[in-house]
Amino acid sequence: MRKKPESDPDLIAQAAQLAMLLEVSASPKAGNVDRCHDYPDTRYEDFLASSVAVYPVFRKAALKDTGVGKLIFEAVEASKRWHTGGNTHFGAFILLIPLVMAGGVQDLAKEIVRGTGWQDAIDFYRAFAIAGVRVGKVNDLNLGSQESLDRIREEKITLFDIFKISSSYDSVSAEWVYGFERSFKYARIVGTNVREYGMNDGIVMTFMQLLAEYPDTFIAMKSGNETALDISATASKLACEFDLDKIRSFDEELIERGINPGATADMIIASIFIALIKGWL
Length: 281
Description:
Layout: H1 9-25, H2 44-53, H3 55-62, H4 68-81, H5 90-101, H6 106-114, H7 118-131, H8 146-155, H9 159-166, H10 171-177, H11 181-197, H12 199-213, H13 217-223, H14 225-241, H15 244-257, H16 262-278
Helix pairs in contact: 1-2, 1-3, 1-16, 2-4, 3-4, 3-5, 4-5, 4-7, 5-6, 5-10, 5-16, 9-10, 11-12, 11-16, 12-14, 12-16, 13-14
């Protein structure tokens, strides 16, 4: 981007949209849908449709037109209106909405998420109900539970409070709680990698480095912590070698095994957005 978006809501929304498009188009991106392969029920085109559909919501976010929870709900609703491929960007919306509202400013993003209220939590649960997301069962404030909604209303539990509970086992929640540290760290890394390797390969390299450093919590939820650690160990080796043929074989293996580093993809989207806003890409 030649000009930093700063406070221009159109440019901020476009940066968020472009971040989603660049992430899904990068290939080979181990275990995830990209321009070279689909899942049986979710196609590359579903991600493209989702990325285009949410532009009006991102613009509202850049204008700070409503609350975080409602914007996440509206993003999911807009995405679902334009495709039938299930969940494409739920985790990405959780990260992008406050970052877009903050114009990519880290301290402001921290302030926004810490300032969420109980209605944001209700709206987030509404978003989850229509998103088609697979999550593990938890003992406290389980998503999709009417009892949880009643408790949120009665105790005025904020969305930030809920993410504090889930931050120990979900990396997207942890980004809220710890001030988007990984997203900003990898925004700098993706900028460096893109300058060295080009856009596609730079994003692929960043994806492998992030997966290597932080075991994917979606894999851990679905397939167990040991599997998540094994995948990260392999990603670490491949990131050092950066042999695209070997990464492509790793990608095919994960697809065959049904292993999807979805949380890693969500964070890469956030990092690309930040890099675009900062003028690092």
